[in-house]
Amino acid sequence: MNILIADDEGLARERLRNLIGDLIGDYRIVGEVGDGEAAVQRCAEANVDLVLLDIRMPRLDGMQAAARLAEMETPPAVVFVTAFDQHAVAAFERGALDYLVKPVRAERLRQALRRARALTRPQLAVLRAMTQPVEDGERVCGSYRGGLECVPLDDVLYFQAENKYVIVRHLGGQLLLEDSLKALERRYGERFMRIHRSALVARQRLHGIEKHRDGRCLARLRGSDDLLEISRRHLPEVRLWLKGG
């Protein structure tokens, strides 16, 4: 297995190099780079099966680099290696095979490499193609009971910001995302409408407006009993949409 180490800290690269050197198996380090742009370039030029990818790096960070790598015809497997475990959900959303927290333990690294070894790069490409949603059936992946779950975007009722997370309310329950509402609005603005600074609602699920006794206007949704507050700023747009405008 050809491995590329991408980390902007020399000591971190050295630790990974030493840990890999102590492992029994056909593991070859084919390069070390200090930023995401260099990682993408090296994978385009060399035969790389696996990238051990830090998240916080200059030029391109790890998340951006992973997105670029995924666009390759036969992308390498990606294992994120970072000191910040709060990025785990976002890492798996970007197709990461595993997620290691610094300081990396030898046994966890061994497990990650075994998982990567089970799939060759062509097999990974086929797997990604097979798991892509058909037509416009995009999926949203988030944290659920300590694991990861993906649901079709068509099943999502609304996104609601709460503390540092975004709750994804869907027909079968809910997930947690680390994305911001602003990022979700940019990504899905044609399908979801901002009705409040803390909520995006699926346009196709908007059913009506209910006026509360305290003067607030609440959105009624198809497929849910939840009532979501509509801010005065967004109320005209919601009314226009419901009128078919």
Question: Which terms summarize this structure?
Answer:
single chain, elongated, 245 residues, OB fold (Dihydrolipoamide Acetyltransferase, E2P), 32% strand, 8 helices, alpha/beta, five-stranded antiparallel sheet, Rossmann fold, five-stranded parallel sheet, 15 strands
Task: List unreliable stretches of 5+ residues.
Answer: 129-136
Number of helices: 8
Strand percentage:
25-35%
CATH architecture annotation of the largest domain: 3-Layer(aba) Sandwich
Compute the CA-based radius of gyration: 22 Å
Residue-averaged pLDDT, rounded? 84
Number of strands: 15
CATH topology of the largest domain: Rossmann fold
Shape: elongated
Give a description of the structure.
The protein is of the alpha/beta class and 245 residues long. The chain has two domains: 2-131, Rossmann fold (3-Layer(aba) Sandwich); 139-242, LytTr DNA-binding domain (OB fold (Dihydrolipoamide Acetyltransferase, E2P)), CATH 2.40.50.1020. Helix content is 31%, strand content 32%. Strands 2-1-3-4-5 form a five-stranded parallel β-sheet, sandwiched between helices. Strands 10-9-8-12-11 form a five-stranded antiparallel β-sheet. Helix 2 packs parallel to helix 3 (62-70).
TL;DR of this structure?
The chain is α/β, with parallel strands linked by helices and 245 residues long. It contains eight helices and 15 strands.
